[in-house]
Amino acid sequence: MSRFQYEKQSHKPSGLLLSAAVFLAVTIFFVQGLSSLSDSTRRRQKESLENAITRSVTYCYAVEGTYPENLDYLKRNYGLAYDEEAFFVDYRVVGSNVLPDITIIEKGD
User: Fold this and answer.
1) E strands of the chain, at which residues?
2) Does residue 5 sit in helix, strand or coil?
3) I want to staple 74 with a disulfide (CB 3.0 to 4.6 A). Which of 24, 58, 67, 80 is the partner?
4) What whole-number distance in Å separates Cα of residue 1 and Cα of residue 34?
5) Distance from C-alpha of 82 to C-alpha of 67, rounded to nearest angstrom
6) Does 10 reside within a domain?
7) Domain range for residue 61?
8) Tens place of pLDDT for every residue, the chain, 109 residues?
9) Is 4 within a domain?
10) 85 is a domain residue
């Protein structure tokens, strides 16, 4: 009958500590990965917005012969859309035949 006897195994504290350390390390790497992915996505969104505004401004100039006076004009007439809660766009007109000064700033969380 000794063959089927249950022997109680004791857990070593170092084994639990090692498991907790590995779990903590995996969690930290996961959170860093998500943060890096979020930063990368935000950069791509900003680049995409820059390209969209440049295309819209250039297209407006090609069609109408003057650059738009403000962003609202581009939104109404050329379908420009972006997340205004994530980005601030500073659009400054220099003249009707001079490319506007466009600055895109990411808003904080």
Assistant:
1) 87-92, 101-106
2) coil
3) 80
4) 55
5) 20
6) no
7) 17-106
8) 556 666 666 555 677 788 888 888 888 878 877 777 777 888 899 999 999 999 999 999 999 999 999 999 999 999 999 989 999 999 999 888 899 999 999 987 5
9) no
10) yes
